[in-house]
Amino acid sequence: MWEYTDKVKEHFLNPRNVGTIENADGVGEVGSMSCGDALKLTFKLDENERIAEVKFQTFGCASAIASSSALTEMLKGKTLAEAEKITNDDIVAFLGGLPKEKMHCSVMGQQALEKAIACYRGKEVQEKEGEMVCECFGVTDIEIRNALTAHNLKAIEDVTNYIKAGGGCGKCHERIQELIDEISGKEVPKPPKPKKLTNIQKIRLIEETLEREIQPALQKDGGNIELVDVSANTVQVRLTGACSSCSAAQITLKDFVEKKLREFVTPELLVEEVCE
Fold it and tell me: Is residue 246 among the annotated active site residues?
């Protein structure tokens, strides 16, 4: 059971500034209902361009509600220049601390504030830069690197606690660990790649990679994959179980299956799905 400070409990049981502001000067929305956390932050400025009114709506746990409520109280009366200096650590300090498993709730507040200020300034929210690492929560390698550096995170669990990456299907754990090793300066061993493969060697490596690297990850979500045929550098596979009806099947094939086969077999491979 997580231990909450009295201030967290107070802001959860009696949240301040709940709701939305009509004709708001700034609006910021982060998260999604499907991910389990969502936050909408709105604010209005006075004639001196200070935040006169700020409200929030959130879908989430006690920490998400308390963090959002705390942030709105911290923002009142501040200029935008002062507001954009507020970090998730400031929110946590205001509340007297949060369980490490709930740190991402404070990060969500900081991200909503950044979007609301960008909205006021008329800046379009750009597509995230970098490599998409965690598909479940839309977290890139740049965001993970920033979190690792800013908070001195050392483990996948720490990354999940701060920015939720890795908290879904788990397929990104290996990549997150690579980023952790990279930031810490640990040398990451590269898998051996034969320069020239006979067709038999290629098929054997494909089968081994499917069994060792790919099938266990898919089976965690109730799915699986079967090798159908190998023709030159084209690998034909069949998705089974939950994977066969998943709306993200093509993403899984290209961003996970094909990527793994290219990594452990040869970079020329292409993966195609064979339907029933």
Answer: no
Tell me if residue 105 falls in helix, strand or coil.
helix
Nearest to 105 by CA among 138, 50, 58, 175: 58
Choice among 61, 105, 119, 172 that is catalytic: 105
pLDDT in tens, 44-73: 999 999 999 999 999 888 899 999 999 999
Where in the chain are the domains? 6-120, 132-184, 199-273
- The catalytically annotated residue of 35, 61, 169, 246 is 35
Terminal-to-terminal C-alpha distance of the chain: 47
Options 2.60.40.1400, 1.10.10.10, 3.30.300.130, 2.40.10.340; which CATH number does 199-273 get? 3.30.300.130
Provide the whole-model pTM. Answer: 0.57
What is the band of 255 on the pLDDT scale with cuts at 50, 70, 90?
confident
Alpha helices in the chain (DSSP H): 6-13, 62-75, 80-83, 88-94, 103-120, 141-151, 156-163, 173-184, 199-209, 215-219, 249-252, 259-264
The fold of 132-184 is Arc Repressor Mutant, subunit A (1.10.10)
Residues 6-120, CATH architecture: Alpha-Beta Complex (3.90)
Is 134 known to be catalytic?
no
